Amino acid sequence: MRYVKIKGKEYPYKCTLGALADLQEKYGSMIAFEQKIKHTEDTGEGKKALMPEPGALWDGMLAMLREGIRIEGAETEPTALMDVIDEEYTIFEICHMVAEEFDRCFAVKNQKTTQGKKKSGTDA
Predict the structure, then answer these.
(1) What is the pTM assigned to this prediction?
(2) So what's the pLDDT on residue 124?
(3) Angle at CA of residue 21, ends 15 and 23, nearest 5°
């Protein structure tokens, strides 16, 4: 679980299937959302700076805060946190948090997959 410090207190945020479903519903696909939160692009000749879309960063962080708060059972309203987050972080810091957690969600969690293998002692 990752945490963001807002007004001196740490709040959890996590990219889960629930957060991804919310973002996909709003943006149509994960690729469309990812393109809106990118702040650099590899052009083959180096990195090119991009301006992330503030609305996508807002939606991404809000969805991830909702999930983190739900998982930890905290009684905090995530929207109220979003109203003050930009007082403590720049757009690029928020972009980094959202993009890093988004990427983590798609990282391989188990290098040795067990999909497609039969469980021992079963015929399935």
Answers:
(1) 0.79
(2) 46
(3) 75
